[in-house]
């Protein structure tokens, strides 16, 4: 199942945004209140999406100013990848969205589509808010 968040314009450079998100500790700053049990050791992170599942992720790819990817660790119940996609509009403005690719059977995908879409939309909204405050 592949999902995309809403696109948002973020008030900073793509390079600065990608550097921020590439730090697993900073990834936790994007998480909405429905997230519980946040943990990070600087290389990987874990958390619980209440009513959905536990997530165990590591930063798997960082293309400066273009893309930051977090992938699930092998023991994750849902194999997935979360990609922050960045498109530089100017030195102080970046268009961004989050793409999620989860390996789910059709029945689980139908039940998980709405909560996972809400989750990635909240992530991109919180990223936008963090950079508005700077």
What is the topological layout?
Blueprint (H helix, E strand, L loop, with lengths): L1 E3 L3 E3 L3 H8 L2 H4 L7 E6 L3 E6 L3 E11 L3 E6 L7 E11 L2 E10 L3 H28 L1
Antiparallel strand pairs: 1-8, 2-8, 3-4, 4-5, 5-6, 6-7, 7-8
Rg over C-alpha atoms, rounded to the nearest angstrom = 14 Å
How far the N terminus sits from the C terminus, by CA atoms, comes to 35 Å
Anisotropy-based shape: globular
Give average pLDDT, whole number.
92
Briefly note the structural class of the backbone: alpha+beta
Low-pLDDT segments? none
DSSP summary: helix tally: 3
Q: Topology as H/E string?
A: EEHHEEEEEEH
State which percent range the strand residues make up. 35-45%
Number of E-state strands: 8
Largest sheet: 8 strands, antiparallel
Q: Give the helix proportion (percent range).
A: 25-40%
Task: Give a short summary of the structure.
With 134 residues, the protein is α+β, with helices and mostly antiparallel strands.
Descriptive notes:
This protein is α+β, with helices and mostly antiparallel strands and 134 residues long. Helices cover 30% and strands 42% of the residues. Strands 1, 2, 3, 4, 5, 6, 7 and 8 form an eight-stranded antiparallel sheet that branches. The protein is globular, with a radius of gyration of 14 Å. The protein starts with a strand and ends with a helix.
């Amino acid at each position: 199942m592949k999902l995309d968040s809403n696109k948002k314009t973020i008030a900073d450079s793509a390079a600065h945004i990608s550097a921020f998100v590439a730090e697993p500790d900073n990834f936790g700053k994007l998480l909405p209140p429905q997230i519980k049990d946040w943990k990070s050791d600087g290389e990987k992170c874990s958390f619980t999406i209440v009513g959905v599942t536990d997530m165990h992720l590591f930063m798997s790819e960082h293309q400066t100013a273009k893309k930051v990817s977090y992938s699930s660790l092998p023991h994750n119940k849902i194999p997935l990848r979360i990609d922050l996609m960045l498109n530089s509009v100017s030195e102080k403005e970046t268009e961004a969205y989050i793409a999620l690719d989860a390996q789910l059977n059709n029945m689980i995908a139908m039940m998980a589509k709405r909560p996972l879409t809400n989750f990635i939309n909240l992530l991109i909204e919180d990223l936008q808010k963090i950079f508005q405050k700077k």
